[in-house]
From TrEMBL:
Gene Ontology cellular component annotations, sorted alphabetically: cytosol; nucleus
Keyword DNA damage: no
The protein's name: Kelch repeat type 1
Organism of this sequence: Arabidopsis thaliana x Arabidopsis arenosa
Pfam families: Kelch_1 (PF01344)
Superkingdom field: Eukaryota
Length: 426
């Protein structure tokens, strides 16, 4: 009797469930497709310790959730999963992204889609990263703004001339642009953070070196410089152009009023500036020029560097912009100056804590990192120490003297001469 009751109860329960289902089928029928989709989806957890799949295996799964893009992802769960993955990975440090390329093809495609960096910009998650190439290095080093974390980039696969010669650097979006001279020509090497590789597939419209440059968002601007003339000699130019990291293309701009080499560039209050340098007769220039994108024209600014001391071989002006204020490291006097754009004059904010005058500005890094100024060089207070010191300050044109804070760089020892330095916002 007990056995038959136990058999009867499941059957009765099943009948009740069927009768209940008939009574409610009409009201719930609109939700059945979504219920079936969720019930039939089995989450997959990637084994981080497993070896990456072969290409043949990847082809079978390449259309899974992680390889979808916002344009071709269907409405529903796949699009939701894609957006969720992008949101999660956009909150990782950029120091971790190179690992995604090694994980498997799906995660590599997600990174290369650039959606992660787009979301970082939209969510205000962009952070500054300092890129340095110093004496004795064979590859670039990437630091966070506090110099607590770092990693080395791959070596540039170029020749002997490029490695040991002078190079110019700038960032555009997530691209690090390095321009220098190889044995036969001036070349452009581009490091892409998305793929963790150096690529050489584009050229400047007018290949040259020793120009003024500055970046804004995904664009980098270039003005002046030295090109190789038809007879093989150096030719100082006034041409200008810009590079866009989204399209990976170069576009010509209106030429400047002055030919100039060894000049510096910056973005100040929405305009690209080229400051100082030397003309085709090797005469130092105290004038500057500002570029208006709307009219594609340059405005000459006389005496913009009036009062600055020049001595051969002077480095290009060391300038940085913080909160729409232009600052200059006067390398002869070893002082920090701030520019009054309305009066066209410079005001002294005190002595900097590094020996910028030791080599007339060469070998010293002077950059803006967020709302701070960063300076790297031999410390004026550590005459016995040949190591490079890192200092930052929160500048303001309203204070009479700036307070500098030393930042420890325990993760790596910098070379005694900074050859190149720039800041990437990613």
């Amino acid at each position: 009797m007990q056995s038959s009751l136990s058999t009867f109860k499941p059957k009765m329960s099943l009948m009740l469930q069927k009768n209940q289902a008939r009574g409610t089928r009409a009201s719930l029928s609109q939700f059945e497709p979504r219920k079936l989709l969720i019930a039939s989806t089995k989450p997959t957890i990637t084994d981080l310790n497993a070896e990456p799949c072969s290409d043949s295996e990847e082809e079978e799964t390449v259309e899974n959730l992680t390889s979808l893009t916002p344009q071709d992802a269907h409405n529903g769960l796949p699009k939701l999963m894609f957006d969720l993955e992008v949101e999660i990975f956009s909150r990782l440090s950029c120091f971790q992204y190179w690992k995604l390329n090694l994980l498997n093809k799906q995660f590599s495609q997600l990174l290369q889609s650039r959606e992660i960096f787009k979301v970082r910009r939209e969510r205000g998650l962009v952070k500054p990263y300092v890129l340095i190439f110093s004496s004795g290095d064979t590859c670039w080093s990437m630091f966070d703004k506090g110099f607590k974390n770092f990693r080395q980039l791959p070596e540039i696969p170029s020749d002997f001339c490029f490695f040991y010669g002078d190079k110019e650097t700038i960032t555009a979006g997530t691209h690090l642009i390095v321009i220098g001279r190889e044995e036969k020509r001036i070349v452009v090497w581009r490091y892409e953070l998305e793929v963790n590789k150096w690529i050489n597939d584009t050229e400047m419209i007018t290949p040259r070196v020793m120009y003024a440059s500055a970046s804004r968002g995904t664009d980098a601007f270039f003005a002046g410089g030295i090109k190789t003339s038809e007879n093989g000699g150096p030719d100082v130019v006034n041409v200008a152009e810009r590079y866009n990291s989204d399209t990976k293309t170069w576009k010509a701009m209106k030429a400047m009023h002055k030919r100039r080499k060894f000049s510096s560039g910056c973005f100040l209050r929405g305009k690209f500036y080229a400051l100082g340098g030397r003309d085709e007769n090797d005469v130092y220039l105290t004038c500057g020029e500002s570029y208006d994108e709307l009219t594609d024209s340059w405005k000459l600014i006389p005496d913009m560097l009036k009062g600055m001391t020049f001595m051969n071989p002077q480095s290009p002006p060391l300038i940085a912009v913080v909160k729409d204020n232009l600052y200059l490291l006067e390398t002869w006097l070893n002082e920090l100056w701030v520019y009054d754009i309305n009066a066209n004059v410079w005001n002294n904010l005190g002595v900097v804590p590094v020996k910028a005058n030791a080599a007339l500005g060469w070998g010293v890094a002077f950059k803006s990192v967020g709302d701070r100024i960063l300076v790297i060089g031999a410390s004026v207070t550590k005459s016995w120490d040949n190591k490079m010191s890192v200092y930052t300050c929160f500048p303001s044109p309203k204070v009479e003297k700036i307070t500098w804070e030393e930042t420890s760089c325990d993760c790596v020892q910098l070379g005694h001469f900074i050859r190149n330095c720039c800041v990437m916002l990613a």
